[in-house]
Amino acid sequence: MANFTIADVKALREQLGTGLTDTKKALEEADGDMEKAVELLRLKGAKGNAKRADRSAAEGLIAAKVNDNGTATIIELNCETDFVAKGEKFIELANQVLDAAAAAGVSNATEALAASAGDQTVAELIDGVAAVIGEKFELRNVRSVKGEKFDIYMHLTSKDLPPQVGVVVGYEGDDEETAHGIAQHIAFANPSVLNREDVSEEDIARERKVVEDLTRAEGKPEAALPKIVEGRLGAYFKQIVLNEQEYARDPKFNVAQVAENAGIKVVDFARLKVGVGVEAAEEADA
Fold this sequence. Notes:
Elements: H1 6-16, H2 20-29, H3 34-49, E1 59-66, E2 71-79, H4 82-85, H5 88-104, H6 109-114, E3 116-117, E4 120-121, H7 122-133, E5 138-146, E6 149-155, E7 165-172, H8 176-189, H9 201-217, H10 225-240, E8 246-247, E9 250-254, H11 255-261, E10 265-273, H12 278-285
Helix pairs in contact: 1-2, 2-3, 3-7, 5-7, 9-10
Keywords: Cytoplasm, Elongation factor, Protein biosynthesis
GO molecular function: translation elongation factor activity
Subcellular location: Cytoplasm
């Protein structure tokens, strides 16, 4: 007769986020010893981590916090299923990773994975929890945002899931309501950079060639090409430059004008969305 109850299985599953069958088997093998069952599940999971390396981790969550040093940190932590993404163990892990990345002052995922998380690295922390739960986990993005003040906006695409889109805005000034409105705008409009000057010369040259080729293909007069190309480049900048985008709440103004009218200035921002770029990365690795 098994030396454990259904309540023991439930408690262990809630503690570790493991599957029902694996949890029962571990308790059976451990003869009801909870600590031994946890160790068995960890060992089994560690062996499976390598096998899961090629799986797609397109679910997960975004988390962010304001730090004490004039920065804020935002991360994207991924897993394989939305069931795991909304579990307490995964959310707890995300908060631990966020705290470690913020404490280390890192600005990308590679640096964050090497950061300290207690007596282990962030990479080891993630691998340990992934081994127990039995899914592939991936810290895909970490960004650091500077500013005097910050607004954090977390967008829920489903009430049953943790945030799937997150925005941090670093700004100067006192109008918190407008800063929050701009953060919501960023979540919707997905700008790439703050100012036109932040667009790389390579990107501008590539876009210029595209619009020149398009304009010539349309049979426009050669003499009119420069003006038409510049106009179309302006439209390109309005798509990707935050300060030049039409403000979502009032398209009569661009974001820079809205900020100026409110007496604030956006100095930095970051926007992350769960799963963005996953398919492209997998195709590149294939």
